[in-house]
Amino acid sequence: MNGTTQSPSLETSSPTPAPRPRLLHWAARLVLIAACAGTVATSELMSDSVFSPEFVGEPVTLTTEAPQTTRDIVVRVSSTEKHSDVVEANVRASLVARWTPADPNEKTRPWIRVSLLEGEESSESRTVQTFPPASDTQEYEEFGSLDTNCELTGPCEWLTHVRFEMQPDGPRGTVRFEWKTMADAAVRGMDEVPAGFNVSISAP
Q: Where would you tag: which of 51, 60, 90, 115 has the fewest CB atoms within 10 A of its CB?
């Protein structure tokens, strides 16, 4: 009995082991995480973006009978300073769409859509737009990333299709688009814009 009653007091008086090994373990993990974060940050360097002048396209008219058409543009990036670093480019379209119904008393409006496509692959810009209530005019923007990688060892060019669409089975009438585009580009792996870096956008 005495041995049994003394056991708890002996355990209580025993010194608690210092948590030093666990502290060292977490310290080592923090150092490793910080080192990895530094490596990622270094590998994701990106120069400032450079923007092209605006390219104003010829107005586009769609009808219920011809509800889709495409216009092409070319984004071009060049630099007098050659590198093997990869160029990342984006394109933006600013649009004003005006709806004219065949029947002046028509209250329903069709949906419209403008897509930016590199080659035959669509970008993320696939949003269907609707006209605001009681309005026959819609202003909006579409954005797209040019996914094909290009090294800055020479000029980079991307052929981009601007696809205009209106609802084919909607109310009869005409949609007229006024549109303009702008491109921007940056260099992955560089923290400065290289010398002579130029971005342009034009018709083919």
A: 51
